[in-house]
Amino acid sequence: MAEPMGFYTDTTVCIGCKACEVACKEWNQLPSTNGGINTLSGDSYDNTRQLDGIHWRHVKFIEQFTEDRKDGRWLLMSDVCKHCVQAACLEVCPTGAIVRTEFDTVVIQSDACNGCRDCIAACPFGVIEVNPVSGTAQKCTLCYDRMQGGLEPACSKACPTQSIQFGTISDLKGRAQKRVEQLHQAGEKRAYLYGADDKMLGGLNSFYLLVDKPEVYGLPPDPKMPTRNLTSGTAFSFLGALLVGLIGIFNFRNRGAADREEARQ
Amino acid sequence: MNGIPSSTYFSAPPEWGWLIVLYFFFGGLAGGCYFLASLIDLFGRPEDRPLSHLGYYIPFPCVVLSVLLLVLDLQRPLRFWHMLIESNTYRPIFKFWSPMSIGSWAILIFGIFAFVSFMGALADAKHIPWEAWRKVHPPLLLGRFIAAIGGIFGFYVAGYTGVLLAVTNRPIWSDTPLLGMLFIVSAGSISAALMILLAHKSRLTTPGLLDLHRTDVWLIALEFIVLIALMISLGPVLRAWLSAWGLLLFIGVIILGMLLPLALSWRTQWLGDWNMKTTAALILLGGFLLRVVIVFSAQGV
Fold first, then answer.
1. Which of B100, B207, B210 has the CB atom closest to A92's CB atom?
2. Is residue B32 in a domain?
3. Is residue B6 part of a domain?
4. Which end of chain A lies in a sparser environment, N or C, as judged by fewer CB atoms within 10 Å?
């Protein structure tokens, strides 16, 4: 296996140009929303709205202003699939359509997916949705086809501020740590890395530098694997089955014995 | 967490709709009816056999309907076989940690049991002339074996759907481990209710009908307890039911589908001859609405 590859997104230098969104759409030939007749969302400059089957990159615009708008700041963040080391989507997929590649990224094989949508419910980040053209679940592939040809993904290539950086995970972590230290020294003590260590789903191969709580960016503070409920859910189901069985046996058997007693008398 | 009760609130809804609600309902009936029929056969009286026949008539059509509903719900229905066979290697695929993967196999295997017992019951009741099918029906040893194993698979089909919902990251579904248990108990109660209604319609007067009614009342009481435990286990996520879905849960499921049937079974004189039938109809309605609320409310958060 090649060395794990991924993205490090420094949200502090994102300018919200959406070049990443456009590059992603172009390279992956993703269709436009509603045949190109899109309505404005009314949510700042964000008319992409969310990550889904036809939006594999999504630039979020978070406005943090006072009531009179005299003071405040923008938080900008280019969101994407996290390519989790322990991937919830891959875990639940019943068809084997979701695979881990030689670059340690997570890819949905569109020709194998049957659109059951279990992965959509399983992903803790709300990354996956059905592409209405293919009728299959889709998300960022980290440009698997480009990586096989030795190219970097379209979004990071297009990013003009190096907010999205591509590389080996070990290299990216080093760069990200240095940037956090730099920001701390410059007085931005709120800077921290989200998903860079292995405590979060074994590590996110697309991790972020943030300056506010994860939920402010629409990220879960404590994402978990869906199978956390498998053992307990199964155990309680067995208990339920046992109780239903005992109730049934007690009612039918008891009455049968009473009848036999009656007949004997 | 900025007032957000759980990390599950950041996932996207899979848009499972009415087809899945109906599947959960008919799948529950298929598994529950088979299980109750096998219980009657294995532990009941010989004169209750017509009641067990009735129980075996329901699962097979319900399984066929369930499979149809599931296939239609896929975005690529013609690829339904990808659930069982890996499309690029043509080898069977079985992921024991994925409830949808195990469930697909369980429906297939249970479908075979449901068909065999369906034919066995028809032959035993002399509705079809093929005597050979009687060999697969209790009280013969092979029939008892099939009923016991089929009953276990029936229970699995009835309950795995709840575990499937729990093994996601959606609010409500994955915030409690009790959904599978609730679905299993509910499958028992709605199945007993349907069998009671069909027995009345077929003018069956076997003594086991009263046992079935009593079983149903116990099951609905147990279901009520499990539902309350589930609500407590949700913790702060319970706030998600401060909505129209919560109102439907309270009025449709708890009052109409649980407390009223319990009251009717306690005060049998209230509706006279209609008591048992009304109780069963309310339990069926409550079981259906329970699945409506569980499926839709978690996706509306």
1. B100
2. yes
3. no
4. C
